[in-house]
Amino acid sequence: MSGEQSTQQDPRRITARQILGKWPVWVFPSVLVTLVSFVLSLVYTGGIADPQGSMRHLPIALINHDTGPWGKQFVQAVATAPDPGRRVSWRIMSPAAAKDAFDSGRVYGGIDVPRDFSSSLQAIIATPARAAAATGVRHPQVTLLTNPGAGSLASSLATGVEQQALRVSSQKVGADLKAQLRATGAQPTPAQLMLLGNPIASTTAPGHRIGARTGLGLTAFYLTLLFVLSGFLGANIVSNSVDAALGYAPSELGPKRRMRSPLLINRTQTLVIKMVMSAALSMVTSSAIVLATAVIIRLDLPHLLQLWVFAVCASAVVGISAQTILAAFGGLGQVISMFFFVALSIPSAGATVPLEALPGFYRVLALFEPMRQIGGGTRAIIYFDARADAGLQRAWIMLGVGLAVALVLGFGITRFYDKRGYHRVHPNHIQSPRS
Q1: How far apart are CA 192 and CA 2, in angstroms?
Q2: Helix (H, G, I), strand (E, B), or coil: what is residue 13?
Q3: What would you measure as the largest C-alpha separation in the chain, in angstroms?
Q4: Which of 23, 108, 290, 431 could cross-link to 158 by cystine, CB 3.0-4.6 Å?
């Protein structure tokens, strides 16, 4: 009998049809994939469904340069306007305080009232209609300030709020001016009525400028995503490679499969190997990211050395934390770490949609999710001159906290597994490494 006939008649050989016909094979992957798809759909779409409806306490500055009474009255009218949902947090600031707030990303926009605001308004009711054209009476103009470093959507939401507040306040100021004019016994002329219908005009300008090659304030988010993914994916690659080298998992490359004999090493020592490798490789991956983005793509990345150091530390903490999850949950740890570092982290990062425009669930996630912390530090370095109060200080603190938690949990869990005798393979299959 030939070898081919022997193989075909081997009673131990089974077919795909035999396996696919067994329902237990389908249960676990079907339930897991369905659950993951369902939860991912909820998480990703829930955060972007209605930013304006979810908006709470959007920080916007009010700056008054006016030397007359109308500037203060206008600012107070905007700040005290009815806001039942507390959608906006109006912050009346001096020019110096407002500049500091813009330069640190603490406000997303602002309304700047000029010095001649009161005099321009008074000129409308003081100038006769026949002299209006000659004297060049025009709408007083306030400046709507944006903060591109806070993100394009944050600036857009702030501008929309400012325009709405300006429209309402302008009409109120116009009505007050009409009443003031009539109190003198004079009747508004047609030209005055036209100006008083909506007396305040606006122009838009950035309150804090960022570089041209910054993706309208989105490069910080994409860099953060790269730092997190390099740490997360690197941890999975390192974990699989180490397991294959130690003989606890097969090594497959195309049609070639290799399975080493398991070596005598416990879970704690295995975790040490994986964590050290993840931390070391973070220097390589971060260098590659900086090389690609700063040298090849030529993004505007000031404080490049500081950004590289921050990227190395952020990727290392993510990698070490991912190794802890993999050590604790085994194969299921890949799904869990994917949810923690990516699925739940992206919508709560506050980069594409500001935290103030997210539902409350995502604001809670932002307290500890890594992309929020790393994103705040990255944004501070490249948009806000690496200021500590722009999010960099909090980022370093949270990286330290995350590292401490990962180390304590990781070694605590693996030592517990080792003491309880939870071996990864049967002890009879373990051999000591060759000398």
Answers
A1: 106
A2: coil
A3: 121
A4: 108
Strand partners, 256: 253
* Residue 38, CA atoms < 13 Å, CB-side half-sphere: 6
Residue 60 neighbours by CB distance under 10 Å: 25
Amino acid identity of 86?
R
Integer CA distances (angstroms), 20 to 15, 27, 170, in order: 9, 11, 71
Domain ranges of the chain: 55-206, 215-429
Total residues belonging to the chain = 435
Task: Give CA–CA dist 311/392, Å, rounded.
Answer: 12
pLDDT tens digit sequence for 217-238: 999 999 999 999 999 999 999 9
According to CATH, what is the number of the domain 55-206?
Answer: 3.40.1710.10
Cβ contact 116:90 at 8 Å:
no
User: CB–CB of 251/258 below 8 Å?
Assistant: yes
| Cα atoms in the 13 Å half-sphere on the side-chain side of 399 | 25
Residue 8 has pLDDT above 60, yes or no: no
Reported as a pLDDT band with limits 50, 70 and 90, residue 268 is: very high
Strands 256-258 and 251-253 come out as antiparallel
User: What SS3 string covers 22-85?
Assistant: CHHHHHHHHHHHHHHHHHHHHHHHHCCCCHHHHCCCEEEEEEECCCCHHHHHHHHHHHCCCCCC
What pLDDT is attached to residue 127?
A: 56
End-to-end CA distance of the chain: 45
Q: Is residue 336 within 8 Å of 325, Cβ to Cβ? A: yes
What global pTM score does this model have?
0.89
48-67 confidence digits (pLDDT tens): 899 999 999 999 999 999 98
- pLDDT at res. 129: 47
